[in-house]
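Question thread 4412

I'm putting together a teaching handout and wanted feedback from people who do this every day. The idea is simple: show students a protein as raw sequence, then show them the structure tokens that encode its fold, then repeat with a second protein so they can compare. Below is the first pair exactly as I plan to print it.
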Amino acid sequence: MGNLAFILTGLQAVIAVHAARNRALTVLLVAMWGRIARARTRLERLIARWRAGILPAPRKSRAGQIARPTGALSIRVRGPNGRGWLLGLLGYEVVPFGNGLRTLLSEPEWVEFLAAVPQARRILRPLVRMLSIDPLPEVILKVRRVAPAIVPAPAVAMAGVVVSPGSQFLRG
């Protein structure tokens, strides 16, 4: 699991070089550099906790809830989020890091880690998307919860009326 730091540090170095060369992209690239640094720190912390057996509980999903404003001056800026946007912006120099990340995520220890720690999948998903790793590792994809199967209730006969789920009232 030690290759993660090498991959993400190398990616940050490439981003820093491009940010210094192209002043028009500096703000965006510095923001991505910071995002990768935070992702690396969070993943390293989760790995240490997973190895120690003291994982935090996964947070509840907030899907469908209305976002609460955090302050009057709180502005949330969204960067590019298309598939492979960093690859398109920086070119061939980031390809080895995407390949390295794909290889790393296919290792058995990482597969086991990502299966046990859903928080790590949320952290890695943007990195995988920005590097356009194909095919997507199955352990990164969102786990879709399957709705429980609806068991049809038995038909009930009451005073000459037959009622069954999903049907009209039928006179018997």
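The second pair follows. I'd like the answer to focus on this one:
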Amino acid sequence: MRKIAPAILLLAMTLQLPSAWAEDKHRCLFISSYHIGYAWSDGIEAAVYQHLKERCVVRSVYLDSKREPHPEKIEKRAHKVKQLVEEWKPDVIIAADDNASKFVIKPYYRDSDIPVIFCGINWSVEEYGYPYSNTTGMVEVMPIKSLLNFVRKTVPNARNGVFLSADVMTERKDYQRYKKVFARKGIKLNKELAATFTDWTTMYHRSQSYDFIIVNNNAGIVDWNEKQARAVVTESGQRPTFTVYEWMMPFAMIGVTKDPAEQGEWAAKAASSVLKGVPISTIPIIPNQRWNLWRNDALSNMAKLEIPLSIKIKSRPYKENK
């Protein structure tokens, strides 16, 4: 991924090539709800660039809503994005994750003349009133039922688990979904939502009293300390831990992870189709469908947890990048 200094996180663009080349290309604007360095949105963006670089001049903007979640601040950044759209006049917009739709697309580009491809919206598009006449997209769903299946195989008598994550909108939204699905199988899922790394550490230690832990996401924990978090898990982790994010695998024994590239690839291909003249109304809204199964043998061995053979056979061993 491209490295861009934090001082220019809001607006960044690809290297501008000679004007003769640019004049022959469409303009594609990528709006990220988050910031450079967040693995999920980095993965979406990389896939968008890879699949559109031959067709578009691709430009990116960032709402930074994980690290700066206050609505009034996001609204100001969204207004700057609107100004950019008016000045640059993109042929198509790709809006990644919830807040790009909430703060930019819904208030400014609902049923506009600019085609919009959204991706990464959690669970449902109803909150934003999609579809509009000018939109299509890919909804982001979690593999909760698959994760629940692996929890039950690993901890057959599980009745009381905990959802440990950052205290941000998307994680609160995810927790409600997890809670309902697990309750149908007689498992009570409690929540621990951390705003700071100290909170997370305290909550992780407290979570050792549950049958299992879902370590869902660290994005939004303002002072997250990767090194210390690994030490906490290594020294204190005794309960089976699960996740749906690959970057959380250093802290989980089993992961059923989403693939951000799937979101970016699909959005780029949909945008390419629209640029070729395909009516956006003919491209249906769909959910993501790709999952990866991981196991962290180092953590499970330290906790003396025997991962079921059926999971070992299907999973890929997670190894740290040293």
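Top answer:
Good format. For the second protein you could add a caption like this: The first strand starts at residue 11 and ends at 13. The CA atoms of residues 195 and 221 lie 5 Å apart.
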